Amino acid sequence: MKKVVSVLLSAAMALSLCAGCSSSSAPETEAQEAETQAAGAAEEGAEAEQAGEAAEGVMPAVAKEDLKVGVIHIGNPADGSGYSYAHDQGIVAMQQALGLDDSQIVRKNNVADDDQTAIDTAMRECVEEGCQIIFATSWGYMDACEALAEEFPDVVFSHGTGYKSNGKNFNNYFGRIYQSRYLSGIAAGLKTETNKIGYVGAWGKDNAEVTGGCNAFAMGVYSVNPDATVYIKTTNSWYDPEGEKQAAVALINEGCDVIGQHCDTPNPQLAAEEAGVFGVGYNSDMSKDAPGAVLTSTIWNWGAYYTEAVESLINGTWTGENYFGGLKEGLVDLAPLSDLCAEGTAEKIEEAREKMASGEWDVFDGVIECNDGTTVGTEGEPMSDADITGNIHWYFKNVVEK
Amino acid sequence: MKEPLIRVVKKAELGRKETLILRLEAILLALVAGGLFILCLGQNPFVIYQTILTGALRSGMAIQATVKIAIPLLIASLGVTLAFKMRFWNIGAEGQIIMGGVFASYFALFHSGWNHWLLVIVMFIAGAVGGGLWGLIPAWFKTKYDTNETLFTLMLNYIALNVIVFLREGPWRDPGSQGYAKIARFDKNASLDRVFGIQFGWIIALVLLVLIWIYMNRSKQGYEISVVGESQETARYAGMNVKKVILRTMFLSGAVCGIGGMVQATGSDVTLTTAVAGGVGFTAIIVAWLAQLNPPAILLVTILFSILEKGSSVVQSSFGLSSDCADVLQGIILFFILGCELFIRYKFVFRGKGDVRA
Fold it and tell me: Does residue A379 sit in the same domain as residue A269?
């Protein structure tokens, strides 16, 4: 029993860690790294007598028939929803896109991400079964990936959400989920009638990812409704079903009529539905959970990365770079808008999406006014990825902490 | 007075051979019942059983992983055996493992610059002391206030677990983890070396096995443990200092478990997490009893358990069976094997049939 509880707790915690954490150190020097890596790669390629086919990759190409892909899941994809399910959908999408056989995918489920020995065992089994690339989907797998990448230089360890990498056979992947949050903010800003919007956040200002996500949401709101205020209430937990519900109810009692969220359960949306107000979900399309309230949801589409990564290994173009995809790459997206959305929502969202997808503009570009009267950013300059993922400890001007 | 339909009667001691046959029958029945369970899941039991075996032993890497699972289980089982021999119900191996890991981790984290072998020896002693002190607490209360050791040791497990949580969230939080609560991976200098590709904790475990076997069967202190276990009055009458025996034995029991924690943290995990014990302290109780508190048998049972666990993990990925199925299988096997102990010690007499006396 105790074991079950601890497994559940750790799973929940790690799951939420993953949902919330970010690859902050990585993207800053991504461009430079990529350059040096490409240069180094060319040399290595020549050394490895693979110069012909692996001109830009740092790992030898793997024939598609010989390829085996390992996946380490913190939960069980068979649950049909949630974090591991979303990742596994991505694996399935990759498998279909590349035409791999079922036997070429090795899944390790329910690997608690704080049990180093279990992680180690699971990954070694993947190596033993012949996997050339292993996707480790949970934050806590990071250190094990680092150690095993050193021990098995011929196997690629691709780690989701952390911040470590070695530029060769150990990289890191995460995404610009804030872009999708901005779009969902538009739906919320157009829908509200009380001009009070609630946001259930996992953590306060210390956490750059939650804070940045809330800001992106609030900026989306502001872009269509400058009079509206976003009230954020934090639960101090990644996963707290009861606390998330209570936070949502408190916000609704304050007069909020749209509830956004950055936490792991659909409970804020259920609370909104119960109170007859609206909401914006996260992680998966939560209109399944609360069809009477959800306008849209901020969602992940991991298949975009998995397909690209495995394909590059087959082509011999694996560079070992970190991956930080957004709307453009299709890694993050917005669930279909429900009929509950205000008129004109789709057009406004499409407009903003175009700008971000084309790379013309991004959420944190230029000077941004904070709610304490200060400003951040420089006119005409985009915010660096490192700042986006690690340094957002301020709130946008229309945000109020509750 | 009417005779009851069935009576349970104590049997005379069975011979070794009969006992062995009964146990083998129990294992066979367990495999059949487990097979039915697998069949219900739509899989071929023979294939699954075979995969469990090959998955655990098919290659050098697989064997290494199996042994790695066995190390803490073997050490902890030996640890609880010392206490159980004394009829002291030490359910606290989990906590003693954790405290051993915590004490050793202090040196791994903050003195990683020391000479490697000095550091390993210090961590070893720290692990033993940590686990030993954690085992001494309930023993002291038992001798002083006659507290219930089962509850006491059990409760201490949760305190130990939260000691790690406290250290992880606060003083020992990895400064490089960008705000997320975890303890840093240990320096290479502070991790145990490998022998045959496995951290050398397996050598420590085997040495402990021999030492404990000798201690229990060939030493005066080991004899005292048995006597206190059989009857404290007898022990007292024989002039033994019962309190001293209890305190000493529980310290040793905890110390051995603590060594298990040290080996797990510095050898396998290379960091300290809340999963350092990971239920091993509870499984060890089952292992110790299945092996009748006999160290060589403990080794055998530990190996079987480790094969089951490692093999199940391969079954999970090869056949898509949930890893929970392995727990069910384990449960079925335990049910039969523990159940057969009843038939070894007792017999059932139906109304009107046979002799009631043993």
Answer: yes
